Amino acid sequence: MNDVTDIAAMMAEIGANARAASLELAHASAERKHAALIGAADAVWNQRARIIAANAMDMDYGREKGLSPAMLDRLMLDEDRIRGIVDSLRAVAEQADPVGEVIAEWDMASGLHIRRVRTPLGVIGVIYESRPNVTADAGALCLKAGNAVILRGGSESFHSSSMIHECLVDGLVKANLPATAIQLVPTRDRAAVGAMLTATDYIDVIVPRGGKGLVGRVQAEARVPVFAHLEGICHIYVDKAADIEKARKVIVNAKTRRTGICGSAECILVDRAFFDAQGAPFLADLIDAGVEVRADGNLLAVPGTVQASDQDFGHEFLDMIIAAKIVDGVAGAIDHIRNFGSQHTDAILTEDDATADVFFQRLDSAILMRNASTQFADGGEFGMGAEIGIATGKMHARGPVGAAQLTSFKYLVDGDGTIRA
């Protein structure tokens, strides 16, 4: 469907089906949702050969589009990564069902008993790029939280996402849940994105997961509420009290494990006192690992570094490139991160508790870490089974968005013929 009129009609039908499915999911039992997710996990594993074949088509498409090696890595599926998808589906299945959880309860002198209880949001729209595993993660988390979901994957992952979606639907049908609880927009046409952003009659919240261009467009055009982060500009500050061996290990992992994910480190800040005493051997480690280190000031003395430009600070490379700068203590690091960060994930390497406390208290990133790789900025690593994204806003959800974050709440009030004076 390339005609905009057809797209509009198609998206209206998808939206209406999602709204109807959400009404049934809101009271679906935890057992049926669990069964649907286990069934989906089994289907993904049983269909892994077909998924890998579909992914090969997507990889060819990505190469033709000129995707970078890091972006192609995000797109690629092999048997190990499909095992990861299966494990995530099973992990979400085994989590406690958030729907109906009593968040708080209390009695009033009037005789009322009040409970605040988790309830589904309704219909969630997820717009994402490249990574086909998001199809499974988003579908699973929305279902677990009792929400219907409309998935609009990136054009690069069209075939892979379609196959994974087929497996999710298989799980739904076998668990006697509506097949339209998880829908995948069946077109690459960008008009479908615009239709989702204005679908206030059908969609309760939009979650964009992708690059600055995608998220910026969503935030600019959406009439539906948005959970979003613009970029993952993750900093690591090496304090004067850092353990040098820990620093070397953490920094290399934070940059090179997966350069194309939002938790990849993009800037190293080095305390001047640390550099004067011990140098910056971790920069040499990065260079040896194939990373281009764009350095400023005295860090250019490290062999193999190249001159950084002003544009390199506050930039999400998503590649084997990192910026590096000397700062004056934790105050200098905080000032730099406030100016150039994206409130996603920032880390401090230090053995000094007081300095770590200052870093944690004075920065307001969604995730702050100490002596740990920023690559842990992931819902699965937080015990959520999976995540639908990292939210950096301050309304409703923040940090990794798992099943519990995809719920709202309502008040249940019990009386006994109680009247108000």
By CATH, the topology of the largest domain is: Aldehyde Dehydrogenase, Chain A, domain 1
Query: β content, as a range?
Result: 15-25%
CATH superfamily of the largest domain: Aldehyde Dehydrogenase, Chain A, domain 1
CATH architecture of the largest domain: 3-Layer(aba) Sandwich
Shape: globular
Helix percentage range: 40-55%
Largest pleated sheet: 7 strands, parallel
Give me the secondary-structure category.
Answer: alpha/beta
> On the 0-100 scale, what is the average pLDDT?
93
Terminal-residue CA separation: 62 Å
Name its key features.
single chain, 421 residues, alpha/beta, Aldehyde Dehydrogenase, Chain A, domain 1, Aldehyde Dehydrogenase, Chain A, domain 2, 2 domains, 7-stranded parallel sheet, 4-stranded parallel sheet, 19% strand
Q: Would you kindly provide a written description of the structure presented here, covering whatever features stand out?
A:
With 421 residues, the chain is α/β, with parallel strands linked by helices. 42% of the residues lie in helices and 19% in strands. A 7-stranded parallel β-sheet has the order 10-9-11-8-7-12-13, sandwiched between helices. Helix 7 links the parallel strand 4 and strand 5. Helix 3 packs antiparallel against helix 7. The longest helix is centred in the N-terminal third of the chain and has 22 residues. It is globular, with a radius of gyration of 23 Å. The protein starts with a helix and ends in a 7-residue tail after the last strand.
